[in-house]
Design a protein that fits this description.
The structure holds two protein chains of two kinds. Chain A is α/β, with parallel strands linked by helices. Chain A has 13 helices and eight strands. In chain A, strand 7, helix 9 and strand 8 form a beta-alpha-beta unit. The longest helix of chain A has 28 residues. The model of chain A has no long low-confidence stretch (mean pLDDT 89). In chain B, helix 20 runs parallel beside helix 25. The chains are: A alpha/beta, B alpha/beta. Strand 3 of chain A pairs parallel with strand 12 of chain B.
Chain lengths: 319, 716
């Protein structure tokens, strides 16, 4: 069980870029024990824009795509490239849970290569739990906290359709990964089942023609949707790698093009509303005067306020 | 499809005149008898080989240690604890010369269990023969060289799939031309059965694997050499205790093989169409409990591969009775050799034509297996062939193995002495101080580290550098591999490097730098969640426990499962991971070949509550304390449990080193192991046993599940 000031202390260490505070911070943020929840809120307050005076500097990147698309191989190559530029990296890998047992097999670790002696890399696997959308309850908080300490924070989820919508609520940049010849993403994109990502990556460029064709088809679909800003890149993450530096550059460019405080503030408010609704239900939302009223209430708060504080605001106005 | 049960294979007697008589005109020559052997050092193994040959063994079967199999020198960090354990360390041509000293290579038939580094070990063999004035054209033997089953079941791969397949195709192309009596590859179904394959899966995956190899080779050598290539491909199979069905399996494989040769590769010559196989019988079914029963199992399994003349093994090696306990001693291996000799020389087995010819039962069994195998081969083909289907096949094997364990747990499948008839007297066989097994002197590793450093210091470094640079150039040759006979053959540069005095680690490192490294799929993510009613009721209770523990901890109990060291036999670890998931835990499955530092970093970053380690290679005395030390340095307080082939006398030292519980093959009830683990985490949450302190757990001491057992000797 946590000590009284553990949350705040861990938050302060993360603010000071003490990466060794990250595992304990994540243990706390994942905990559902009431005492831990209070400490977690204190931790998140320490790293909130309100407390920092600015958005946490880490780049928040969501990576999602169907199983087998090559996400982990791609991440191995990206982690390697970022570390080569002395950028610290945290990966939050979210795996689905078994509906039968509630347990999960968190397999990504075995697939992302990392040097155990390198203190600048952290890989944390979490189970999505029973929540729809593929994001673990603690993932938003974890991403926000780690962004105070790490240069890059990746949130990796599995799926097509809902997954990238969910990850968009927490990431600055959403990357959808597809493998050559996979038609689902193309169809989902055209049908509007999935939202337009910021960057589309076609893996396995070494397959040649089929990879090129997939890249062209996706680019054409995006043009017809009017999504001219979405980059479509073809990469090969296995030996010899290609396109990784271009991807790193594309991620930088996208981030530079953002109004970061506005995007993150909107994301935090959306997350607070989601968390509130899951905790108290639609009935409570109606008691607040409906979704629009709740959104207006959130919009009136300090834009740098962290998610638990925003949820707290909604709860107080309920009472 | 026309059914044709009469097989082409008439291994030892071409005459068909005996077809209508009860006896052969002349007794058949026995198969080649081998013992899978090697440990400690080249010199010690050489002594063992000479003794074995004196005892009537007719061929050599070399067991290499795991660093040699995966391409590391004895002084590599990853080699720690593994040097000389499951086989002999061979780091350079000097070691190979010592290993084969006094053994006439022009006459010997040598089988080498070597895969990722097969090209290198064959090169060392060729160079050693040169020194004996034996030309490579005269060499006879087999390199296992089957990489797909390494990805699926055995784990001693070194390079990614595409360059691995190129190495194999290069080797086949080279040997067909220059070492014509050599079997460059043994397609292994053996390890698939060890990983839980059903007979149908064993046949289908082995044949699919053969197709992948032959297709890759066809691109390398061209259509016109395929007749010869096909004739050089042999198999390495397994036989379990269900020996009638197992025999049917071999007849089915013979039929499929001939069909494949004719239809896919246009092979005409009946000699080339013969299904040739060597065998090591099943280790998975050998038990730690009442280990003397393993002798009868081995005898029956030997019958599976010898009874019917039309599908009889060319070469046999039998495991020893004590493989589930630890490494066998020379005496244990002699016992297994004598089983072969009694069968071949005392019984009337070799006096008859095929005794199953015309048997309706056997024909029907064969048909059943053929139908199943053809259907499963079609599924693999739909996935794009064996290389592309590795994740599919791996997940299917994990599922089959789990089903096997379930049947044993529930008593549906009887294992005498383990889940039935368990009352026993104390065994005099394990009464000696070392528990009836071979213990490798721990000083061996330090000696080998010194020796390889001396070797590097005394050789012509410039020649080595030049040879390795040439190897890297050949590896980078873009023309090689797919559809290009004109690319440089890696065997040529490999033999030159062997001659120059390069080491195993240098050869593999040079290629890793060009080819990149690789981690094979684990199969556990795709395996279905357990749904059998019987287990669910027991598991249901445990899930309730886990849920209560989750409330207490604030988080779902999280376990890290992984394998330190170079041992790639991941079946047990995979089953533990699955059962933990099915119990409701969050499972971080780390897979194989982990350093203590990697395990500690993962445990810390993942915030796990307990750590489960599996080791079957005998390196636990070195590696487990190293992991515990690394965990301590990282400030991780989670308790450690260990499963694997852990001799009884090693349990106390491991617990003294801080291991909370040890499981060996006699602990076959995985749910019970999970209950122990949950209790251990619960006790930790109460603050009673601190990290690494022995906790009191259930009855299961000295035992990993049946899942954790299997294949003591690094996998034949």
């Amino acid at each position: 069980m946590s000590a009284d000031d553990e949350g705040a202390a861990l938050g302060a260490r993360l603010r000071a870029h003490d990466l060794s505070a990250a595992p304990a911070a994540l243990n706390l943020l994942e905990s559902t024990a009431p005492a831990d929840r209070a400490q977690a809120a204190a931790l998140l307050h320490e790293v909130s824009p309100t407390a920092l005076g600015h958005e946490p500097p880490g780049q928040l990147i969501g990576v999602t795509g169907p199983p087998g698309a090559g996400k982990s191989t791609l991440l191995s190559a990206l982690v390697h490239a970022w570390r080569a530029h002395q950028r610290t990296v945290a990966v939050l890998a979210v795996d689905p849970s078994s509906r039968r047992s509630g347990g999960s097999l968190l397999g990504d670790r075995a697939r992302i290569e990392f040097d155990p002696a390198d203190r600048g890399v952290l890989i944390r696997s979490t189970a999505a739990g029973q929540r729809l959308g593929g994001l673990a309850h603690a993932t938003r908080g974890a991403a926000a906290a780690l962004a105070a300490a790490f240069d890059v924070v990746v949130i990796e989820t599995v799926g097509v359709g809902q997954a990238e919508t969910d990850v968009a609520d927490v990431a600055d940049t959403v990357v959808v990964v597809v493998q050559p010849g996979s038609g689902d993403v193309l169809q989902f994109l055209k049908a509007g089942i999935m939202e337009t990502p910021d960057v589309l990556v076609v893996t396995k460029a070494d397959l040649g023609q089929i990879a090129l064709r997939t890249q062209r088809d996706l680019a054409a679909a995006l043009r017809s949707l009017g999504a001219r800003d979405t980059r479509v890149l073809s990469v090969c993450a296995v030996h010899p790698p290609s396109g990784i530096d271009e991807l790193v550059a594309a991620l930088e460019e996208h981030r530079a093009s953002l109004d970061l405080p506005a995007r993150r503030a909107a994301a935090r408010r959306a997350s607070a509303l989601t968390d509130f609704t899951i905790e108290h239900g639609e009935r409570a939302l109606r008691a607040l005067g409906g979704r629009a009223a709740a959104q207006a209430l959130l919009a009136a708060q300090d834009p740098g306020m962290e998610v638990p504080a925003l949820v707290d605001t909604l709860e107080r106005s309920l009472a | 499809m026309a059914r044709r049960i009469k097989l082409a294979g008439q291994p030892y007697n071409e005459s068909m005149s005996s077809e209508h008589s009860a006896r052969l005109p002349e007794r058949d020559r026995p198969w080649m008898m081998r013992t899978y052997a090697g440990h400690s050092t080249a010199a010690a193994s050489n002594e063992l080989y000479r003794r074995n040959l004196e005892k009537g063994q007719t061929g050599l079967s070399i067991a290499f240690d795991l660093p040699t199999q995966t391409g590391y020198d004895p002084d590599d960090e990853l080699a720690r604890g593994e040097v000389g354990k499951v086989g002999v360390p061979i780091a350079h041509r000097g070691d190979m010369a010592a290993l084969l000293d006094g053994i006439p290579l022009g006459e010997m038939n040598t089988s080498m269990t070597i895969n990722a580094t097969a090209a290198w070990l064959l090169a060392l063999y060729i160079v050693t023969a040169e020194a004996q004035d034996v030309a490579q054209e005269q060499l006879q033997g087999t390199t296992q060289n089957d990489i797909i089953k390494e990805f699926l079941a055995r784990g001693t791969y070194a390079f990614p799939p595409a360059p691995s397949m190129r190495l194999i195709a290069d080797m086949i192309a080279y040997t067909v031309e220059h070492v014509p009596k050599w079997n460059p590859i043994n397609i292994c179904s053996y390890h698939l059965q060890e990983a839980g394959a059903t007979p149908v899966q064993e046949i289908a995956y082995a044949m699919s694997n053969a197709i992948a190899v032959l297709d890759a080779t066809r691109e390398r050598v061209g259509e016109e050499r395929m007749e010869q290539v096909f004739g050089r491909i042999s198999f390495f199979v397994n036989a379990g205790v269900r020996f009638i069905e197992e025999h049917a399996k071999l007849r089915a494989m013979s039929i499929l093989w001939e069909e494949l040769g004719r239809e896919r590769y246009g092979v005409q010559d009946p000699h080339h169409l013969r299904f040739r196989y060597g065998v090591q019988v099943n280790s998975l079914g050998l038990t730690e409990a009442q280990p003397e029963n393993n002798v009868q199992r081995i005898v029956l399994e030997a019958l599976a591969v010898t009874l019917g003349r039309d599908a009889r093994a060319r070469a046999i090696q039998l495991p020893a009775w004590n493989e589930a306990l630890g490494l066998p001693r020379p005496w244990d291996q002699q016992w297994s050799l004598r089983i072969q000799q009694v069968l071949a020389y005392e019984t009337d087995l070799l006096e008859y034509p095929d005794i199953f010819e015309g048997s309706k039962v056997m024909d029907a069994l064969v048909e059943e297996l053929l139908d199943g195998a053809r259907a499963e081969m079609a599924v693999v083909a739909e996935h794009g062939g064996a290389v592309e289907a590795v994740p599919y096949m791996k997940a299917a094997l994990v599922d089959s193995h789990r089903e096997r364990i379930r049947r044993i747990e529930e008593g549906e499948q009887v294992v005498v002495g383990q889940n039935r008839f368990t009352e026993t007297e104390d065994s005099p066989l394990t009464a000696d101080a070392e528990g009836g097994i071979l213990v490798v002197d721990p000083a061996v590793e330090a000696e080998q580290i010194e020796a390889v450093r001396r070797w590097r210091a005394q050789r012509d470094q410039a020649a080595v550098d030049e040879a390795l640079a040439a190897l890297a150039r050949a590896a980078r040759d873009e023309r090689a591999g797919a559809a290009s006979p004109e690319g440089e053959n890696l065997m040529v540069a490999t033999i030159a490097a062997a001659r120059a005095g390069a080491t195993t680690g240098e050869w593999a490192r040079t290629l890793r730098e060009v080819f990149g490294s690789y981690r094979a799929p684990t199969g556990v993510g795709e395996a279905a969640a357990l749904g059998q009613a019987g287990i669910d009721s027991e598991l249901g209770e445990l899930r309730g426990e886990v849920a209560r523990l989750q409330e207490k901890l604030g988080r779902r109990p999280k376990i890290l499962v992984g394998k330190p060291g170079l041992d790639g036999h991941s079946n047990g670890a995979e089953q533990i991971a699955l059962r933990a998931r099915d119990s409701g835990m969050d499972v971080v499955y780390e897979g194989i070949r982990l350093t203590p530092a990697q395990i500690a970093a993962s445990a810390l970053q993942e915030g796990v509550h307990v750590i489960g380690l599996s080791i079957l290679s005998g390196s636990h005395r070195e590696l487990i304390p190293a992991v515990i030390g690394a965990l301590h340095d990282a400030g991780v307080a989670a308790p450690v449990v260990v499963g694997g082939i852990i001799p009884e006398q090693d349990v106390a030292p491991l617990r003294d080193a801080g291991v909370a519980a040890v499981y060996t093959p006699k602990d076959f009830d995985l749910t019970r192991i999970m209950r122990d683990i949950v209790a251990l985490v619960d006790a930790g949450a109460n603050g009673s046993p601190a990290a690494g302190e022995p906790a009191t757990v259930g009855a299961a001491h000295g035992g990993a599940s049946q899942a954790n057992g299997a294949v003591a000797n690094g996998g034949a």
